[in-house]
Amino acid sequence: MKKTKKIIQGFTIVELIIVISIFAILVGTVFYNFGDFFSNQQLKTYGQDMVQSLRKAQSNATMRINDSQWGVGFVDTANQFIFFKGDNFAIRDSNYDEVHEFPDILSFENISLNGGGNTVIFSRVSGETTNYGSLDFQLDSTKKYTININQLGQIEIN
């Protein structure tokens, strides 16, 4: 009678280490890209929220809601912007304030509005503003969201 040897098939330790290493690299890449994607989405979401507040202020002024001007004030020291009713941010009617806060990882980098300051106020009926200019909202030095507002009150995003 002939004896036959059973051949045990399996993976060598070297093959297992290679597969585990490739898997670890793929998982690391996915997590890194997911974190970057999440940060970009946060920047975009809060930037769009600012644009919506600006458009709402312009719309309210154009429709003469409460027969008043409406605006948005950007408070860079508190990481927030405030939708408000009134001719001036300092003497606004705070009963109409809508405060929008954003996380500390986001910040205003450059607020460059005509006449200085950090508010955009839209005129009744016309919806125009004398506080035209731009503001940069950023996550870090490489990722930013720029909002441009012209004299007619038109809002563009870059």
**Portion in strands:** 25-35%
Distance between the termini: 84 Å
CATH fold name:
minor pseudopilin epsh fold
Structural class by helix and strand composition: alpha+beta
What is the H level of CATH, i.e. the homologous superfamily?
Answer: minor pseudopilin epsh domain
**SS element count, helices:** 1
SSE series: HEEEEEEEE
Number of domains: 1
Query: Could you say what the CATH architecture is?
Result: 3-Layer(bab) Sandwich
Largest sheet: 4 strands, antiparallel
Shape: rod-shaped
Topology, number of strands: 8
Low-confidence stretches: none
Rg over CA atoms? 27 Å
Q: What is the CATH level 1 assignment?
A: Alpha Beta
Helical residue percent band:
25-40%
Please state how the strands of the largest beta sheet are arranged side by side. Answer: 3-2-1-5
Notes on the protein architecture:
This protein has 158 residues and is α+β, with helices and mostly antiparallel strands. The protein has a single domain, classed as 3-Layer(bab) Sandwich (minor pseudopilin epsh fold). The chain is 32% helix and 32% strand. It is built from one helix and eight strands. It has one helix at 13-62; strands at residues 70-75, 80-85, 93-101, 107-113, 119-122, 133-140, 143-149, 155-157. A four-stranded antiparallel beta sheet has the order 3-2-1-5, covered by helices on one side. A four-stranded antiparallel beta sheet has the order 4-6-7-8, covered by helices on one side. Strand 1 and strand 2 (80-85) form a beta hairpin. The longest helix has 50 residues, at 13-62. It starts with 12 loop residues before the first helix and ends with a strand.
